[in-house]
């Protein structure tokens, strides 16, 4: 979820990953990195990378390795953030 201010900069962001570990994982650092940022691809990619590398701690099991789960989290976070920024812009 992304909220934009009157200048269309990120005022607030919330990201939660499900099925990446034992329970829901909140991406606090990634969300914080977006505050005050314009919705650029660079900002979105950086936040997705932070989420996948620093905010979540996935385990490996018979279904997927931790490395694959991190990769998938990065890709899905990027897609979700692009969509969230579009929705937030449409609501302004």
What would the average pLDDT be, to the nearest integer?
A: 94
Write down the oligomeric state.
Answer: single chain
Largest sheet: 2 strands, antiparallel
The CATH fourth-level homologous superfamily? CO dehydrogenase flavoprotein, C-terminal domain
Q: What's the CATH topology label?
A: Enolase-like, domain 1
How would you describe the overall organization of this protein?
The mean pLDDT is 94. Helix 1 runs antiparallel to helix 2 (41-55). Helices cover 51% and strands 12% of the residues. With 92 residues, it is mostly helical. The chain has a two-stranded antiparallel sheet with strand order 1-2. It has a two-stranded antiparallel sheet with strand order 3-4. The protein contains 3 helices and 4 strands; from the N terminus they run ββββααα. The chain starts with a strand and ends with a helix. The chain is elongated and about 45 Å long. The protein has one domain (2-86): CO dehydrogenase flavoprotein, C-terminal domain (Enolase-like, domain 1, 2-Layer Sandwich), CATH 3.30.390.50. It has helices at 28-34, 41-55, 66-90, and strands at 2-4, 10-13, 16-17, 25-26.
Question: Which descriptors apply to this entry?
Answer:
single chain; 92 residues; mainly alpha; Enolase-like, domain 1; two-stranded antiparallel sheet; 3 helices; 51% helix; 12% strand; elongated
